[in-house]
Automatic annotation (TrEMBL):
The chain crosses the membrane at residues 20-39, 51-73, 94-121, 127-150, 157-177, 213-232. The keyword Nucleotide-binding does not apply. Keywords: Antibiotic resistance, Membrane, Transmembrane, Transmembrane helix. Residues 49-232 form the ABC-2 type transporter transmembrane domain. Pfam families: ABC2_membrane_3. Its main location: membrane. It is a multi-pass membrane protein. This is ABC transporter permease. It is found in: Membrane. InterPro entries: ABC2_TM, ABC_2_transport, Nod_factor_ABC_transporter. It comes from Saccharopolyspora mangrovi.
Length: 238
C-alpha cells in the first residue's frame, strides 16, 4: 500500500506543469544564469558557490511551495476526506506523500548535479554524504511548513501566500545572493530563515568540506519542530 501510494503521489507531482516549473525549470535556469553571469563577488568557478543555494531553492520549491498548493487544493476538492474514508491507514497517506517528495528532491538533485558538473562544478567529495542528510532534513522542515500553510488556509490564499514566501526567500533568504552580500540586517536575518540555514549548511559541506555548524542545523530543527507541531493542531481535511 505504501509503495502504491508513493508511486501515485510521485506521478502527480511530476506530471503537474506548475510543479515542473518550480522543481526543475526555474532552478536549472537560475543555476546556469548565476554561474555564467557575473553578479556579486564569487570565486571561480562560480558554480561551486551557486550550487548549494540552488539545491536549497529546489528543496524549498518542492517541499514547501509545491506541497502547500497541492494540499490546499486537495482539501478544496475533498481528496483527503475521500482517501481517509478508504482502507488506507492515515500513516500510509502521510508517509506516501513524504516519500514522494523525497523522491522528487532526489531527482532534482541528480539533474542539478549533472548540470552543475557540465558547468565546472567540483564539490568536496567528503561532503556528499552529509549533503544528502541535509537535503533530507531540509525536505522535512520545508514539508512541515508546507503542510502548515496548505492545511489550514483557503486554496486561493495558499496559492498567493506560498508563491509570495517563495519569492521573498529567494531574494532575501540567502538564495539569490549569499547572506554576506545582502544589504544591512538582511544578511543576519537570512541565517535564521530555513532557506538561509540550509544554503549555509550545504555550502559548508560541499564547498569548504567542513561540518555544517551548529547554528544552521539548530535553525532548521527549530523551524521543523514549530511548523510541524502547529500543523498537527491546525490542519483540516476539508
Amino acid at each position: 500500500m505504501l509503495a502504491a501510494q508513493t508511486r501515485i503521489e510521485t506521478l502527480l507531482i511530476v506530471r503537474h506543469g506548475e510543479q515542473a516549473l518550480l522543481t526543475l525549470i526555474i532552478p536549472i535556469a537560475l543555476l546556469i544564469g548565476m554561474s555564467t553571469i557575473h553578479i556579486g563577488d564569487l570565486p571561480e568557478p562560480r558554480v561551486n558557490s551557486v550550487m548549494p543555494r540552488i539545491l536549497a531553492l529546489a528543496v524549498m520549491s518542492t517541499a514547501f511551495t509545491g506541497q502547500a498548493i497541492a494540499l490546499g487544493f486537495d482539501r478544496r476538492y475533498g481528496v483527503l476526506k475521500r482517501l481517509s474514508a478508504t482502507a488506507l491507514p492515515r500513516w500510509t497517506l502521510i508517509s506516501g506523500r513524504v516519500l514522494a517528495t523525497l523522491l522528487v528532491v532526489a531527482l532534482q538533485a541528480v539533474v542539478l548535479s549533472v548540470t552543475a558538473l557540465l558547468l565546472g562544478w567540483s564539490p568536496a567529495l567528503s561532503g556528499l554524504l552529509p549533503g544528502i542528510g541535509l537535503l533530507v532534513l531540509g525536505t522535512l522542515v520545508f514539508g512541515a511548513a508546507g503542510v502548515l500553510v496548505g492545511g489550514a488556509l483557503r486554496p486561493e490564499i495558499v496559492l498567493a501566500l506560498a508563491n509570495a514566501v517563495w519569492f521573498i526567500l529567494l531574494l532575501a533568504g540567502g538564495l539569490a545572493l549569499p547572506a554576506d552580500d545582502l544589504p544591512g540586517p538582511l544578511g543576519v536575518i537570512a541565517g535564521f530563515l530555513p532557506s538561509g540555514a540550509l544554503a549555509e549548511a550545504l555550502d559548508a559541506v560541499l564547498v569548504r568540506s567542513a561540518l555544517p555548524g551548529a547554528q544552521p542545523v539548530l535553525v532548521l530543527l527549530a523551524w521543523g519542530v514549530v511548523c510541524g507541531a502547529t500543523a498537527v493542531r491546525t490542519t483540516r481535511l476539508t
